[in-house]
Design goal:
Elements: H1 4-18, E1 22-28, E2 34-36, H2 39-46, E3 49-57, E4 60-65, E5 70-74, E6 80-85, E7 94-100, E8 104-109, E9 116-120, H3 124-127, H4 141-150, H5 155-160, H6 170-180, H7 193-212, E10 253-257, E11 260-264
Parallel strand pairs: 2-9
Antiparallel strand pairs: 1-3, 1-7, 3-4, 4-5, 5-9, 6-8, 7-8, 10-11
Helix pairs in contact: 1-7, 4-7, 6-7
The chain binds a DNA duplex through residues 1-3, 32, 59, 74-78, 110-114, 116, 151-153, 157, 160, 162, 169-170, 219-220, 258-261.
DNA sequence: ACCGGAGCCTGTTAGC
DNA sequence: TGCTAACAGGCTCCGG
């Protein structure tokens, strides 16, 4: 389940093999992978475009192409991107493949087919609704405090709301709440200034740790080179139901909030 | 404005 | 040990 740190890991690994390359063609065996525009139009418009920059916005990968085109990819649950030689063994799960001018391929592997590809002249149409980047300099505790007070919502589902903050998914939401010592069932407008400060620091801490450890290989995620990340060895609560809390020794509990499994320590979080 | 549920998918896991 | 059924999970859409 790629979240901000996992997507950032892809972005960093893809820059070296892709920057300066030109996309010459597209292969697709699952048309629903292409969200926008229609697959044949996307193929026609992307051919001949050079990859000039690769960045991340929330959980989206953003490829700035020549001629003011932007390729946007969301990996959703099981998406994976890698650059391989053209004669690499075929991958039945690589539903969308970008052919490169050096003979290589950018493969979008996606067993569950939840991922989406966009080719946009104005990426704001897709990226515009996203909330602030939690690792950006202008994401301050004061800004978070104001945003929390404005919405009266349960913390866990709110952290997963991409229009509130961009990039946090189920793993890092649970980890951030544990690190901040806050129960996932707390309501956003009830946090004290100290609690907001703790949450702000915790969000940035766990995301930065996830990036440093190149992502959490808990379900299907692996790095572009196929190797596992290392963040799964540093989680405090996620999918540790019944196991001992590393801080107090008590059992980690699991509840469902907003339809998502939620893990926390009832002793350490208040 | 917010919440809950269905739907999209298929590999993995739980339960018999 | 082998099978089937439920689950996971980001996000969108719908109805309340």
């Amino acid at each position: 389940m790629p979240e901000l740190p996992e997507v950032e890991t892809f972005v960093r690994a893809l820059r070296r093999p892709l920057l300066g390359r030109t996309i010459i063609d597209l292969r697709n065996d699952w048309p629903r992978h292409i969200a926008q525009p229609a697959p044949d139009e996307l193929a026609a418009r992307i051919a001949g475009r050079r990859i000039e920059a690769i960045d991340r916005r929330g959980k989206y990968l953003v490829f700035t192409l020549s001629d003011d085109e932007t390729l946007v990819i969301h990996l959703k649950m099981s998406g994976h991107l890698s650059v391989v030689p053209g004669d690499a063994p075929p991958d039945p799960y690589a539903h969308t493949v970008f052919l490169l001018d050096d003979g290589g391929e950018l493969r979008f592997r996606d067993p569950r087919k939840f991922g989406r590809v966009y080719l946009l002249r104005d990426p704001d149409g897709v990226l515009g609704p996203l909330g602030p980047e939690p690792l950006a300099d202008d994401f301050s505790a004061e800004a978070l405090a104001a945003a929390l007070a404005r919405r009266r919502r349960v913390l866990k589902p709110l952290l997963l709301d991409q229009t509130f903050i961009a990039g946090i998914g189920n793993i890092y939401a649970d980890e951030a709440l544990f690190d901040a010592g806050l129960l996932p069932t707390r309501h956003s407008h009830t946090l004290t200034p100290d609690e907001v400060a703790a949450l702000h620091a915790a969000i940035r801490k766990v995301l930065a740790l996830g990036i440093a450890r190149e992502g959490a290989s808990i379900s299907t995620y692996v790095k572009p080179d196929g190797q596992k990340g290392d963040m799964q060895n540093a989680v405090a609560v996620f999918r540790r139901t019944g196991q001992s809390c590393y801080v107090c020794g008590g059992p980690i509990e699991r509840i469902v909030l907003g339809g998502r499994s939620t893990h926390y320590c009832p002793n350490c979080q208040h």
